[in-house]
Amino acid sequence: METVSLTIDGKKITAHEGEKLLSVALDNAIYIPNLCALQDNSESAAACRLCFVEVEGREEPVTACTELVAEGMVVNTRGARALRLARSAFELLMASHPVDCAHCAKKDSCELQKIAHHLNVKLKSKRFRKLLRELPVDDSNPLFILDPNKCVLCGRCIWVCRERLGIGVLGFAHRGFERVITTFAGEPLGESRCQECGDCVRICPTGALAFKDGNGK
Ligand code: FES
């Protein structure tokens, strides 16, 4: 595979042709906020809209999870226009996310906290009206709970269960504000084909999937 040379935030980097900009940046210790991309998943849904960066010569910021690296590319992950878009997406996401970090199983590993810190925005933003969903928590699985109120619909759990493990217990249902992660026909997790490996909990960026023993990681 051909190699390409590019610059991200002033750092000279060598990558392989065909690699996604987000993966290359993360592999080189340059953090770009992201929720819906998986480093080993070649197709990103580009749904969270958090990974905007600016590329020299491009009119508008681009999503790093869909952008392929190119020879001579010059990337700025901290450009004002890219940050403005990412901040808006994050504040919109947080408008429907409960903020009760002290009582959340993922309080020490939550990616929302990391993103808020990186973007320099508060978890409790007043910019958009708060609209919580108040959905029931599924605690029927002996190992972990599914709290759809804390779900950011990144799809990581669906991917890990289906693509990596070949089981496919979880999937998306409904559209728009009603959209949720659920089991087939909405059955409780405890009655599903879940094999309790816990990989979906470990890959979940928030407290939506959390181990019952309190180990949030
Ligand atoms: S990580 Fe790029 S849009 Fe979600």
How does the SSE layout of this entry go?
Elements: E1 3-8, E2 11-16, H1 21-27, E3 52-55, E4 62-63, E5 74-76, H2 80-94, H3 111-119, E6 144-146, H4 156-164, E7 170-173, E8 180-183, H5 199-203, E9 209-211
Parallel strand pairs: 1-5
Antiparallel strand pairs: 1-2, 3-4, 3-5, 6-9, 7-8
Bound molecules: FE2/S2 (inorganic) cluster.
Give the key terms.
two-stranded antiparallel ribbon; binds FE2/S2 (inorganic) cluster; alpha+beta; 217 residues; 5-stranded mixed sheet
Describe the structure concisely for a colleague.
The chain is of the alpha+beta class and 217 residues long. Helices cover 21% and strands 16% of the residues.
How is this structure best described in words?
The structure is a single chain. The chain has 217 residues and is an alpha+beta fold. The chain contains five helices and nine strands; from the N terminus they run ββαβββααβαββαβ. It has helices at 21-27, 80-94, 111-119, 156-164, 199-203, and strands spanning 3-8, 11-16, 52-55, 62-63, 74-76, 144-146, 170-173, 180-183, 209-211. Strands 2-1-5-3-4 form a five-stranded mixed beta sheet, sandwiched between helices. A two-stranded antiparallel ribbon has the order 6-9. Strand 3 and strand 4 form a beta hairpin. The two termini are 35 Å apart. The mean pLDDT is 93. FE2/S2 (inorganic) cluster (FES) binds at residues 34-37, 44, 46-51, 63, 65.
Helices and strands, in N-to-C order? EEHEEEHHEHEEHE
Rg value: 18 Å
β-sheet strand percentage: 15-25%
Mean pLDDT: 93
What structural category arises from helix and sheet content?
Answer: alpha+beta
Percent of residues in helices? 10-25%
Helix tally equals: 5
* Shape annotation: globular
Question: Which ligands accompany this protein?
Answer: FE2/S2 (inorganic) cluster
The largest β sheet comes out as: 5 strands, mixed
Unreliable parts: none
Distance between the termini: 35 Å
